[in-house]
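DM between two lab members

TW: hey, do you still have the Acyl-coenzyme A thioesterase 11 entry open?
JB: yeah, one sec
JB: this one, 586 aa:
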Amino acid sequence: MAAGLQCAGSTSPPCTQDAGEQQEEAAGAMGGHNPTEVQMSQLVLPCHSNQRGELSAGQLLKWIDTAACLSAERHAGCPCVTASMDDIYFEHTISVGQVVNIKAKVNRAFNSSMEVGIQVSYEDLCSGKHCSICKAYATFVAQGPLGTKVKLKPLTPQTEEEKIEHSIAAERRRMRLVHKDTIKDLLTRSTSNTEMETRDGSVVVPAEKTRVESVELVLPPHANHQGNTFGGQIMAWMENVATIAASRLCHAHPTLRAIEMFHFRGPSQVGDRLVLKAIVNNAFKNSMEVGVCTEAYDQEMSVSRRHINSAFMTFVVLDEEGRPRTLPMVVPQPGDGERRYREASARKKIRLDRKYVVSCKQTEVPLSVPWDQSNKVYLSYNNVSALKTLVAKANWVLAREKEKVQIYTLEEDKFLSFRIEMSVHISASQAFSLLSDLRRRHEWDSHYESAELVQQVDEDDAIYHVLSQTLSCENKPQDFVILASRRKPCSRGDPYVVAFRSVTLPTHPPSTNYTRGETLCSGFCVWPQSEEMSKVAYYNQATPGYLNYVTTNVVGLSSNFCATFEACEKFLLKNKDDLIARLQDL
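TW: and the structure you got?
JB:
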């Protein structure tokens, strides 16, 4: 991952040793402005455009990389290199004469790597129109002399937005660390059933006719002062050969719509020759995937070619009205060509699933997300991120307090969320272990009758079938199918997290014996206050069928919430000694 790589990257001029002090002074002068924030505005000129008079995606990637690196170096106080760039989805094209506005700031610093969030929009100077282009996340590594790792200082978020991004950055980092294994697992599950597509009347093009190979010599303008090639420059060269390959298929000018994660496997320096290869892996009805890889070798060819980077880019061809055109079909070569063809189909499914999971609006019905083993990493990410986002909200209001239990509410649009918290004489790790097993929930929560473990997905995720008591407004008991996702703290100050959300399983369809309930976002956060004391908080974004019960407790007409949480405290205190004994036996 980022912290373990010496990667190709971009950088600004070297920073002095007191850069951190200067940045804090600057922040004070700007009235609390985020000291890592960088804003870049570029007027799109003809030299930046393609044959359609639109900003080339390669040039945009170079600007994105530069702005992100400048932000990273503001926090690190030393040179930084690009380790990876997450998936990017381009919403619009940008024309000559318009202005590209890029805002980048560090979301979170880990040991020697940091996540930078980038927002890109365009501005039409004549009409005053502003429009979002894309949002991206890049990982940068701080480097000291001779490429040594630099330990980064923590970043303290200030605004609600920054706190949300800081919290969810840990989840995105977790996905990056398992990205390679996830893709491998998903492809293994998917490729065996992929069939060659057939379309009546479609032109058929052999994939080999789209193959492109190009070489670039890395010169000083392409590299930073340490001699490492700019990450953005490599991305731009890759986009160039990918566009040529796509054009050879459709005999038209394609538009880049999406890029799957760039991951830099190693550095390249001034004097290296970079060999860039591209080929259309698969063409669907309205889009095509182009695979690109980059290899490096030096002048003497003293070592074999080094694999620098691989990426997969999705292109479309637009008609005069901006609608995607139907594309020719691709016929892959036997062997590796057929493998790439099937893998492209699997990746398309992954992208569609992931886009649905991440963009699913809370107002959409049903609230439950279909469970898919091939997309488990992203479903788990969405589950935990939703809870972390709720936790980081700033407008929680204390609605009720009874002895040691506090109830807070958060009113947003159509949703009422509540939080119940108290301090308990138990270590955070013990509370986390006891609360994360839904099979024991009935021991303290009278609303639960039982919970059956349906599937242990992995060490951190499990699916339960939960049976609950009948609410006063219901004629029969409820049941739920719930994904429970656990997370230990990523760094000091983070809570232990147990997140819950409803999923649908073919093996557990709704039954006439129960009313199928759904939970949109709920779970526990446990913060250590000392070695033997923890703050335990339960969060829930109330769904409509649960709303009347929630408001009755919030306004004090019922004490069920308080009684349940007090029972939870007794459960934790009663079982912590047994838990310690079991751990010692292990």
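TW: got it. The longest strand covers residues 130-142. The CA atoms of residues 426 and 573 lie 7 Å apart.
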